[in-house]
Predict the 3D structure of the following.
Amino acid sequence: MTPEPVGVAPEDPAPQRDLTAHRRVATVLETLALHHVRPELRQLPGAVRTAQAAADALGVTPAEIANSLVFAATHPDGTVEPLLVLASGGHRVDTAKVASLLEVASLDRADPDFVREHTGMAIGGVAPVGHPRHLRTVVDVTLGRYDRVWAAAGHSHAVFATTYDELIRITGGQPMDVA
């Protein structure tokens, strides 16, 4: 199934609500513009809360989806900070490995409240950028295998096309093998 441009539903001739006006999507687009990025934005016909669902809607493999996963990173001194991992949807993040590489005591999957507090977005729509404060970010090196990858754009119905190199540049992310 090929997604339609923003504002058009494939089954319905009447336009959907234009998500570019949605507060979170607008913030993501504004942040991307600050980095001189004008992305291809797609509005999907339904909420995509998994890499498989996004891949199915876009006609790509799950590995071409840059999942935005938020973790609570606990430092040896007990302080906790959010960590955003942009992971290929083709595999799972090895949290023990990533914690070791980052020299943190533990890495735990964040609950929905923690995610919203630190990103301003709900799980399923967390974008790589556009958060209230900069988040420490890791970018899965596996995404570098693809010419184009897709990331959430601040809403569970919106995604944008980007590249591995661009993800590193716009997030200030640290490349890492996370699997």
